[in-house]
Amino acid sequence: MLRYLTAGESHGEALVGIVEGMPAGVPLTAGMINGHLARRWLGFGRGGRAKFEQDQVHIYSGVRFSKTIASPIALRLENAAYMRDKSGWPEVMALEGDGAGIEPVTLPRPGHADLEGARKYGFDDIRPVIDRASARETAMRVACCTIARVLLKQFGIQVGSHVLRIGKVGWQEDGSWHKQRDALLGSGAEAVNGQADQSQVRILDPELSKACVEHIRETKRSGDSLGGVYEVVVTGVPPGLGSYVHWDRRLTGQLAQAILSIQAQKAVEIGDGIVNTSRPGSNVHDEIYLNNSQDYQRRSNHAGGLEGGMTNGMPIVVRGYMKPIPTLIKPLGTVDMASGESQPTRYERSDVTSVPAASTVAEATVAWVIANAFLEKFGADSLDEMQKRFSDIS
């Protein structure tokens, strides 16, 4: 099975990652990863870091002549902010020394890991928490998980995403975006990306995109931040991935964990899970029929491609719900951990919203879960052997 590990801090020298378990023979170059790293910076409302952070991954091992060789794949992403930012980060996050002369940060932000992280690990300076809990970590996560995405593509499985709403602006009626999305899914989930990436906020509808941009501008002027909702879709998935026999092998639970592991994500939905709670069962469950090839099909996809914790052959649909970013221009109330006095929060450079970016990170984490489930069913030591097993079973 696949495993990955990330390391590094937001303003340290670099992020690093290790991917283990990839079969031999999977095509892989740095360019394949860098394309998705660039997509992570998409979205109107991003902060100043997006102007100078150009993520370019370096592959150190596990690849030979543009193909994986089954050994661990080592990745590195430099943090441009470490050297280019003028805020003294190399000194603040120095690997050696005693930190003498470095002013500690002692004002935890509401909604962030600051306070509980400092209390958990006994820090009197919350900077280590800020730097590791930062969403900057997702850059390496995207790099690692893109390798799984490349594996899936060898079997015709595509992953895409689009934004449904930012703050109070976006698709308001349940399922109002289905027709537009489904027209694109006929060409595979990457067609959704192709259109969504043309929007400043990754919303498929041009008028809603314009309204969202103005909503973000207004929110920035007021010193506030915005959350939102996005949808990840996966096409080409064969039936029978996952299992109902053990709780931890249910794919629904694994997908929910993947989404909620992303910074600032607070809720997840599979298919039409939320609206289905208010519908009668006759309008919820997807009727079954045999197509002309005598294959089982569903007449609808309210279940989001998953039944009993297993894929049913329909597109997988997962929605993530992101809270507003906790770093605000307009300060909130907090307590100085050094003095115990009530204080307004200090401003750390941040985005007004990063929902579009979160949607691309969610694509990556979902791809990782699907790839692991795929390997569980069709896994082998090499891509050639996997393709033979897949052909024999399917």
Description:
This protein has 394 residues and is α+β, with helices and mostly antiparallel strands. It has one domain: Chorismate synthase, AroC fold (4-Layer Sandwich), CATH 3.60.150. The protein is built from 13 helices and 17 strands. The strands form six sheets. It has a five-stranded antiparallel β-sheet with strand order 8-7-9-15-10. Strand 4 and strand 5 form a beta hairpin. Helix 1 (30-39) packs across helix 6 (137-153), helix 6 (137-153) packs across helix 12 (355-378) and helix 10 packs antiparallel against helix 12 (355-378). The two termini are 21 Å apart.
The helix-strand sequence is EEHEEEEHHHHHEEHHHEHEHEEEEEEEHH
Shape label: globular
Unreliable segments (pLDDT under 50, ≥5 consecutive)? none
| Radius of gyration computed on alpha carbons | 22 Å
What is the CATH class? Alpha Beta
Structural class: alpha+beta
Mean pLDDT: 93
Q: What's the count of strands?
A: 17
Strand order of the largest sheet: 8-7-9-15-10
Task: Classify the helix fraction into a percent range.
Answer: 25-40%
CATH superfamily heading: Chorismate synthase AroC
Number of domains: 1
Please report the number of helical segments. Answer: 13
N-end to C-end Cα span: 21 Å
CATH topology: Chorismate synthase, AroC fold
